[in-house]
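User: Please fill in residues for this 173-position structure.
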C-alpha cells in the first residue's frame, strides 16, 4: 500500500524538476539560436560591405587603367614627335654642312653668292627646329612624369585590392 503512494509521490516530486530542466534547456537552445542568428547577420553585413568595397575598388581600378593607357599614348606621341623633330634637325644640319662645302668649293661667284644668301635662312630654320626639339623633349619628359604618377596610382589600387583579397581570405579561414 505504501509503495504505490510513494511511487506517486516520487513521480510528483520529480516531475516539476524535470519540467524546470526542460524549460531551462529550451531557453538555452533559444539563446544559442539567437546568438547564432546575430553572428550570421553580422557576418552577412561584413560580407556585404566587403563585396561593395571590392566593387568600388574594381571600378576605380578600371578607370585608372584607362588613365594609364591615355598617359602611355601621350608618351608615345611625344616620343614620336621628338624623334621626327630630331630627324629634321639632323637633315637641316646636314643640308647646312653641304651648303657650306659648296660655298667653300664654289668656282662660280654667282652660285657662291646665292649659296651665301641662302645659308642664313637655313641656319635660322635649324635654330627653330632645335627649339622645337627642346620643346618636344620637355613634352616627352612631362608625359613620362605623368605616366609614372598615374602608374603609381594604379599600383596603389592594385596593392589595396591585394590587401583586401588577403583580408577576405584570412576571414574565411
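Assistant: Residues filled in for all 173 positions:
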Amino acid at each position: 500500500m505504501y509503495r504505490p503512494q510513494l511511487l506517486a509521490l516520487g513521480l510528483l516530486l520529480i516531475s516539476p524538476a524535470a519540467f524546470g530542466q526542460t524549460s531551462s534547456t529550451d531557453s538555452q537552445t533559444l539563446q544559442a539560436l539567437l546568438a547564432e542568428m546575430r553572428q550570421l547577420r553580422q557576418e552577412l553585413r561584413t560580407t556585404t560591405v566587403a563585396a561593395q568595397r571590392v566593387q568600388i575598388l574594381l571600378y576605380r581600378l578600371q578607370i585608372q587603367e584607362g588613365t594609364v593607357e591615355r598617359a602611355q599614348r601621350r608618351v608615345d606621341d611625344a616620343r614620336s614627335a621628338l624623334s621626327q623633330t630630331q630627324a629634321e634637325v639632323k637633315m637641316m644640319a646636314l643640308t647646312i654642312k653641304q651648303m657650306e662645302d659648296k660655298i667653300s668649293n664654289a668656282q662660280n661667284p654667282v652660285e657662291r653668292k646665292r649659296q651665301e644668301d641662302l645659308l642664313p635662312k637655313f641656319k635660322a630654320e635649324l635654330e627653330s627646329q632645335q627649339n622645337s626639339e627642346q620643346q618636344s623633349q620637355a613634352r616627352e619628359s612631362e608625359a613620362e612624369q605623368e605616366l609614372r604618377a598615374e602608374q603609381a596610382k594604379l599600383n596603389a589600387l592594385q596593392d589595396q585590392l591585394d590587401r583586401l583579397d588577403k583580408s577576405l581570405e584570412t576571414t574565411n579561414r
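For context: The helical segments are 2-105, 109-172.
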